[in-house]
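Sample intake sheet
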Amino acid sequence: MHLSSTPLPGASSPASPMRRRVTAGGGALAGLALAPALILPSQAATARLPVVPYVATPPDVVRRMLALGRVGRGDTVYDLGCGDGRIVIEAARRHGARGVGIDLDPERIREARENARRAGVERRVRFEQADLFATDFSPATVVMLYLLFEVNLKLMPQLWRQLRPGSRVVSHDFHMGGQWPPEQIVRIRKHSLYAWTITPDLRAYATGQP
């Protein structure tokens, strides 16, 4: 396995069976080339969003996402569109973190709860059937994403408003355009991982505070 970790020029410093369903609607998948965002948060909020199919993240990619998010025992990891719960379960099992998984599919939530029970971490994680855009992420110190470009863009201002400075965001395969360039990009085979940190300036901009 070849891993590369490449900072994005100009950036500030400080998956197996099927993809998670978080929201429905129409729309075409945006290109994956890292270029200035063509959809600003205000535009993304009003655009109809595509359905996000459920695709499970491979175990080695899960482990690399947790490492990229610098997950430790004191962290609370939120996985938005959690599928079978493997990311927050691994965060609890391997790193001693707490975790919350959010998904719209009740079958995935049932599966995730059973997986947590089997892994012996059900007291450290919980899973909720909920709409991501009506969810409070403020307790999170790390947020994991495996959604779509358009969905990431709509979530971006919500993440800026709700997450505390120093919180980390890691996305599998989909970035957030030039408006929020990733601080780090990691390639694992055909997978791309993107990482960001919430800064005080982002939080202030999103909340309108000086």
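Comment: Confidence is low (pLDDT under 50) at residues 1-46. The CA atoms of residues 60 and 188 lie 9 Å apart.
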